[in-house]
Amino acid sequence: MELTPAERRVAEAFPLGEGVDFREDDDDPGRGASWGPERTLRAEVLRELLLDGPVRAGRTAGLKVTGARITGRLDLKYGTVGHPVRLRSCHFEEAPDLYGAQIGALVLSDSVLPGLTAGNLRAEGVVRITCCRITGPVRLQGAKLSGALFANGARLGRPGEVPEEAVLQLNHAEVGTDVWAPGLVAHGKVHLNGAVVRNQVNLDGAELNAPGETALHAEVLTVGTDLHAMRLVARGRVNLAGARVPRQLNLAHARLSNPGGQALRASSSVIGELWLREAAPVEGAVNLRRAQLDLLHVPPEVWPDQVRIDGLGYRVLTPHLPAEQRLPLLEREQDGYLPQPYEQLTTAYRTVGDDAAARTVQLAKLRRHRRTLPPYARLWGRLQDAAVGYGFRPMRAAGWLSLLLCAGTLAFALRHPPALKPAEAPTFNPFAYSLDLLLPIVDFGQEGAFAPRGAYQWLSYLLIAAGWVLATTIAAGVTRSLNRQ
């Protein structure tokens, strides 16, 4: 094959592992289609070099080209490339095909491509698409990368379009270190379903655009340490169902938006810490059902109007706030009243020693449950609530007893009830008589000795009934307290 002067320069540099730079001042690979033959390379020439190029003793061969226009398809499908491939700031007319290839390292930084097919790729080094502009899909599903995948600053897809196929596909890929993609902009879906990343995934400052679709589809993603997504902007659902993130899922300052659908789904996931500190209010529902967390940091104003948190478990809830600021979230449960979220919130307050807040949550739970009961049970519940706050407000019972005792004492002091047996009756004491009526298990000998009549008889009935209600509700509250202990 006869080589052009540009291709000859690359062929001569290849066995020496030296680089060839075709760039001129202020080059933009986006305009690479207009570059002339002096910086144009045929893909078939590069393929021959990579698969069967010359090597020189004592030197490490490698393809290192910067600022070239590459025509034709670079087809390395199922090939074994024992050399690093570095094609920086290049303009590709066709999407390279590296499906099933084995390669040392692949660097395409700052290049412009119509796509990249590299499913089941085996790379001993890093794969870099840093700052690339790739209009078509990047297929890396099933890839096994010993090093990291760098996609920081990359631009994927076409603005304003959401193609049916995901623009970045890492399904079931295995990455030996990191997926490093801060500043990534994706116009379309990003898939990491079933991927295994040995260290961390970094999406700080990334922008994922798939309105009405799943912007980040990462079900059963396994991360070795952290998933950082600070300042993430996601238009579309972020799906992390079943994910494993042992340390931190950091969504601080993030903007999650999927109106009319779920904005964040992390059901059945296991996460060390979930942070939404200073994030914008979530637009769309949040699903954390059956998720297990060590720490949950979500300010109340970040939660949306609809949540699913049944089965959500967490040990610590930050920032520490009064229970009254946390309880509105439990009212937003899409499945209606569920006891578990109240019990979990109670446990979190008890973990940090805030028993008063824990009692407030339990009281709110009983009030919410009351709304699900039939009318007669709701009435009895209201009596318990008004009397002693279901046993969580015991001082309220003392107040009611004092009020009724004073009323009874005053009323019977103004008009003594007649004695049943005047010769045997003790001296009438309006205070002791009222106390006898109010306390069912106490007998001062006054109640059985005197019999009020008319309106005073009905007053005595009222005091007796009120005493039984207070005694029953206090006993229920004490029983609840003993059960908690």
Silhouette: rod-shaped
Beta-strand percent range: 25-35%
> Which residues form runs of ≥5 with pLDDT under 50?
none
Mean pLDDT: 91
If you compute it from the alpha carbons, what radius of gyration comes out, rounded to the nearest whole angstrom?
37 Å
Q: What's the N-to-C terminus distance?
A: 86 Å
Number of strands: 36
Number of discrete helical segments: 9
**Count of domains:** 2
Largest sheet: 13 strands, parallel
Helical content (DSSP H or I, runs of 4+):
25-40%
Give the strand order, joined by hyphens, for the main sheet: 1-3-6-9-13-17-21-25-28-30-32-34-36
* Secondary-structure class: alpha/beta
Describe, in plain words, how this protein is organized in 3D.
- The chain is α/β, with parallel strands linked by helices and 485 residues long.
- It has two domains: 5-370, no CATH class; 377-484, Helix Hairpins, CATH 1.10.287.
- It is 27% helix and 26% strand.
- The protein has nine helices and 36 strands.
- It has a 13-stranded parallel β-sheet with strand order 1-3-6-9-13-17-21-25-28-30-32-34-36. Strands 10, 11, 14, 15, 18, 19, 22, 23, 26, 29, 31, 33 and 35 form a 13-stranded parallel β-sheet that branches. Strands 5-8-12-16-20-24-27 form a seven-stranded parallel β-sheet, with no helix packed on it.
- The model has no long low-confidence stretch (mean pLDDT 91).
